[in-house]
Structure formats: structure tokens, C-alpha cells
Amino acid sequence: MDKQTVSAYQMGILFFVFMTGSSIINIPGPLIGKANNGAWLSLLISGAIGFLILAGILYLHKRYPGMTFVEYSRQLMGSALTAVFSVFTISFLLQMQSGIVNDVGLFMVSSMLRETPIYAFNFLIFAVSAVTVCAGLEVMARMFTLTMILITGCIILVLVIAVPDYDPAQLLPIMPKGIKPVLHGAYFTFGFPYVEVFLFAMLLPFVNNRSASKLPKTMVIALGINIIVLCISTVCSIMIFGSFAGEMTYVLFSLARVVEFEDIVQRIESIIGMSLILGSYMKTSITLYVLNLFVSQLFGIAKSRALVMPLALIGFLMGLVSVDSATDWGRVVMAVHPVWSFTAFVLPLLLLLIISMFKKPSA
Amino acid sequence: MFMAERIMVLLAAFGGILLYDWLTMKKMTKREKALYAVLCFICLYMGLDYAINKDWFDFMDLMMPVFGNLAKAIDDYLNVNA
């Protein structure tokens, strides 16, 4: 396995960046469309499920230190069952990496650079992500700390400038149509982003021994901050646009368009565009790293960088041939992804947790 | 989009990865080469699909029959806005 290690703090940063990166731009609009004013409740419900998945992978990491999901899965279920479940896991990992970049491409084509073909954005992001993955996890952790500070600062700036325009009365009533819309929103946000916590089952062994004791607390805090940040951006969107927020795909982008400060700071939506690209690039890099590591370990390949480029190319081409339209893509993400990701991630994890409770780890 | 444009995109993508790997990758084992070839073959299939724009059987066509119906049923049950 790759010899690079990171500290628990850096792993927490990677985790936060991964969970928040593209979600903060893509989630609020469609979520409000499904759950209306109860959107923040949906995030709390799906966030709680995310905590459960995190607890599961931390438990398995504690029982099998230094081993990735593939390695302890082989030990617990055997190679054959691991291979069977891995078909779905790899399928969704490929879909994820293609989907993250496709989201950026569709955003840029619909909002900012309408005449530029989508492959221009997709190709560049995949190219840079692939080269970043080849540089290694330690490099990624160090670089993403700086870009995360930049993105967080930009988003906080936009939300703070919009304070005079917030109308808290728009937040009520919370559940005018009952609990079902809230559950619908939770179903959507479970599929994106909270089920993706699973990916860190492949990365936790890269934490160095010196800071390993701080890992569980760091990961829990990172996920907690992610939930709070997403709730705040969703609530702020509702306070500005009310129920119309649900009709906007990129509501934070629209919010940045309308806010102004003293007639000097106006039309700052390009900041959100930049944040989306950076966040999606970081998330794509981490996903590609995990996918490459997963496939390499599954096929017993020692040099884990050999497959990075072809896997990135598959992701690029999938984005070009699999997506028929933006509407179709939206339907797949909102309806199909939760079921697909449950089969790919949660089901094997649950199985391993049950087996591990009855089986002692071998020496 | 013209076919020539699509072919140029594919040449750039394939050429880029092959060039990068040729410059940076040292010796590969037989297993690595075999897996690399399989992945490149999958890329070639999708590349041809993209170039001639015939909507061949792709990844989503494989996965939607498996998950599509259940996903639609859950989504329809929870959707009160329709």
C-alpha cells in the first residue's frame, strides 16, 4: 500500500472537504424543492444516518487497524463474497466520480459559460484530479487544507453580506404538508452526500500512529461541522427566496447574484462558481484515489498508481455517454442514487459489522 | 457537435493518458498491464460510442434495470408535490 501517512487532523480536513465540497452548492436548491421549509430537518435525519455509517467504519478500523475495507472484508467474508459486493461498490464509485464532475460541467454550461462545450470542463477537472491523485494522499491533504479555507471564507462572505436581506418569517411553517416531504429530502441527502462517508473506510489506515487516538473525535467533529454548514446555507437560502428556493438548482449561486453591499460589492456569483469548481475538484480527487485504491487492492496490485489514468478516463467518458440530459441526470441523482449507494456501500458494511461481532480478528 | 470534433476530444484524452503514463510509469507487472488493457478497452468502447453518437448500451443501461423500479417506487411514495 502507499506509504504516505497523514495526521488525524489532516484526515478530518479531507473528510470535511469531501463531504462539503460540492454539496454546499448542489444540495440546498433541490432539497428545498423536496422538503420545503423542513429541509434542515431532512439534513439532520440524513446526517444522523451519516454518523451511524461513520461509527461503523470507525469500529471496523479499531478492530482491524492498518487495514482498508477491502482487506478486512476479505478476512471476514472471504475473497468470493468480497468480489461479489465489490461489483456494486466499484459501479457506484465510478458513477460518483463521473457525477461530481458532470455536476460542475452542467453548472458551468447552464450558469456561467453557456457556449463552451461540457467536455472542456470535464476534461480539465479530470486531468488535474488524476495528476493530484498521482501525487499522493499527503500532498492532497496539505493542498486541500488551503483551498478549503479559501472556499469556506468565500461562502461565509456571501452568507454574511446577505444578512440584511434575510426574512426569518419565511422559515415558517416548518412542515405544512406533514413528515413525508422531510423524509423525501432525507432520502435524497442520504444518497448525496451522507452515504459517501463509507469511502473513508479505505482511507482511515493512512492515519499515522502518533495521532491515531484523536481520529474518532476529529472525524465526528468534521461531520458535525459539515451538517451545521449545510443546514445554515439551506436556512439562509429559504430566508432569502422562500419557497422559490426549491425551483433553483444552484440556489447559493442565485443568492450571490442578488446580494450587494453599499453598492460596491455586487454580482459576486463568480465566487460561488469558483468555490464549486474547487470543491468538486477536491471531491473528485479523493473519490478517484479511493476508487484506484479499491480496484488495486481487489486485484492484488501493489503499485496503486498504475490504474489512476484509465480510471479517470472512464469517468470522463461516462460523463459524456451516460448522461442524456440535465433533467434525466437530476432524476438519477435524486431518486436512484440513494438505492444504488445503499446496495453498494451500506449493505456490505452492515454485513461486515454483523460478521465482525461474531468473529475474532486473527493475529 | 461534429464527429471530427468528438474524435479530436477523444484523441486528446487518450493521447494525454498514454503519454503521461509512458513518461511517468516505470515497470508494470503482467497483472497491472492486463488490468490496464481491460480498462483501456472499456474506454475505447465508450469512446467509440461517443464518437459515432449512436447511444450504445452503456453503464446506466446496465444499472437502471437493477435499481430503477425500486427507486421510482420509493420516490413516488415520498413525493407529495406531484
Automatic annotation (TrEMBL), chain A:
Keywords linked to the UniProt accession: Germination, Membrane, Transmembrane, Transmembrane helix, Transport
- Cell compartments where the protein resides: Membrane
Topology versus the membrane = Multi-pass membrane protein
Q: Name one GO cellular component term.
A: membrane
**In terms of one coarse class, where is the protein primarily found?**
membrane
Q: Which InterPro entries match?
A: Spore_GerAB (IPR004761)
A Pfam family of the record is Spore_permease
Locate the transmembrane regions by residue number.
Answer: 12-33, 39-60, 80-98, 118-137, 144-164, 184-207, 219-245, 271-295, 307-327, 339-358
GO BP terms, alphabetized: spore germination
Q: Which family does it belong to?
A: Belongs to the amino acid-polyamine-organocation (APC) superfamily. Spore germination protein (SGP) (TC 2.A.3.9) family.
Its recorded name reads: Spore germination protein KB
